Amino acid sequence: MKHYLQFKDFSADEYAYLFDRAALIKHKFKTYERYQPLVDRTLAMIFEKASTRTRVSFEAGMYQMGGSVVHLTTGDSQLGRSEPIEDTARVISRMVDLVMIRTFEQSRIERFAAHSRVPVINGLTNEFHPCQILADLFTWLEHRGRRADGTLDVGALRGITVAWVGDGNNMANTWLQAAQILGFRVHISTPRGYEVDPAVAGVPRGDFWQVFDDPMDACRGADLVTTDVWTSMGYEAENEARQRAFAAWRVTPAMMAQAKPQALFMHCLPAHRGEEVAAEVIDGPQSVVWDEAENRMHVQKALMEYLLLGQR
Ligand code: CP
Ligand code: NVA
Predict the structure, then answer these.
(1) Would you place residue 217 in the very low, low, confident or very high pLDDT band (cuts 50, 70, 90)?
(2) Which of 107, 231, 264, 292 is least surrounded by CB atoms within 10 angstroms?
């Protein structure tokens, strides 16, 4: 049994398989071809933080594949009345086939997985957001990594440069794990005090990633520029200090002009126009943020199928 708790849980070959599978599953969805390999399977989703995209993409995706979904939050379950996460895992995993959790510390999802009889998927923790990077890479391949016959070439990621502008957070950590596995480079620029911690990110210091003081320098020559909110869920008490510290880490048209002319802009959403990104960038021609959001559903359908049924 496999879990998907962080990006490095899967190999490059598994990602190549998942991207192909997601493309096929997306095609079926777009052409109204019924595809229901998960009839009688149930996904439990546990949200200890808010969500729009993660909830809708997992829930709609599971129903489309013939399965069903149970939605729990901290407030409406015994988790909010201090039932241990280990006991919750033991109970829920006797009743459902798959669990997705969005929570705080990575250690919490690891404790759940250690006591679960069924696969567990990370729907975001303080440290990682692997489903989002799965969707982001799929989106990049759709736009920039197609072979002549239209299929996706995961090898096209090899050697590209991703510029990360902003917080050294769960998204930044996950980009670094993806870079190590799939062979691309990451340029990171964060304000002082908000750097990526390689020990937390679970990656070695190495030549596949480089730190820049000035976000303009990080964007120079990039194939993809990406950012995220200045204040992630769970860090709201730091919001005022972060607004001050991050003021120069807004992705602007001038910053995008440092990147390659064909560079794409990505943001996992939700976004704050005028904070981490200028409206002209997120609403501009290089932005693929709506494709990213939609692709959450297609890649997660492939992921759920793989965890429950293996390679097909
Ligand atoms: N990007 C993302 O995970 O969005 P939600 O917080 O809306 O799920
Ligand atoms: N870094 C953000 C991502 C939201 C999808 C957060 O953790 O709140």
Answers:
(1) very high
(2) 107
